Amino acid sequence: MNIIEIEGFLTFTLAIMLLFVGKWATARFSVLRKYSIPEPVIGGFVCAAAVALLYYLANIQLQFDLELRDYLLLYFFAAIGLKADFKTLISGGKPLLVLTVLAVIYIVLQNGVGLSLAAMFGMDPIVGLLSGSISLIGGVGTTMAWAPTFQEMGIEGAAELGIASNTVGLIAACLIGGPIAKYLINRHQLKAVEGDELDIGVHHEQSVQLDHFGYLYAWLFLNICIIIGYVLNLGLQEAGLNVPMFVSCLIAGILVGNFKSLVLKKEMDENASKGLSLISDICLGMFLTMALMGLQLWQLVSSIGFIGAVMFAQLVLSVAFTVFIVFRLMGKDYEAAVISSGFGGITLGSTATAIVNMTAVTQQHGSAHKAFIIVPLVCGFFIDIANALIINSLIGLFS
Length: 399
Known about the structure:
The protein is mostly helical.
């Protein structure tokens, strides 16, 4: 096997080209807009498929340097925080609690599916956790963190199984959010508030005029928020509370944005606000494109039977739970439909897939400000804590 490493600058440049492919395809084919298929999914998956073909046909494995990917997520969440006001946060208190409770319930159900399918395939039931919340809601990081524990328990190939499950889940997560929202919006005849500016990006039909001052002003504030978020993250770690860096940047953005509006009595310039929307849209698109570029589809082959069955069951559970429970308990309005598209993303993918699903929906149908506050907080903070506690409990119960 010939391994070719693609260094960071070339990886980043290729990601830009692939994002253009996604944007071109979305503009060219109305069906992609109709079902709110995220632009990054198209280019990113094309790359992953091409890499897999090279692997099988030419015995060449491409490895992309994805170090820059995680920095893009920091910019995105800092921008979300800067555009969030305390009034919206306060109004989102009850929905935030409800969605957190629903997420906890879902983690238990998701692991129940994994445990049951593993037993049906004659495996140790605990193997099912690797195709449950460890790899799906938890992601690659959680999978790699838990893999040594499973290996110590005598389960070989734990990391490979978890990563394979995450690969399928990530692709599915990017594809189900838009159709879920479309079904709910059409079924209940829901509409967004007209004229509201989007939290991320712009409407498909809209063109934006942006001068260099607005873009530079937005960039400066984002860098300030990331610096504050870094310091805040260090403080939280010292206090024994480990949270993802992007959550600290989100909190920093909220503090900076509200300090400016409430204390300094200065609202953000319209040009700067547009700059924030565009920067956050580009950063999120680039992040997900690079995440999909890094998928190694050949890892699915070794356990395709079990993964196919368990991921089909997980997909059905995600759609059913989101449509019949999450949407209803979150208010059965347009905001609830957007939140549902995000919930479908986090149950099978990651926080980034949740947000990119909501972005695609709002670019097609209109803004949903509350959704972009509630979902990142639940996905990026509360759900990680709950997931760790539940995984610990289940491993203790079945080991």
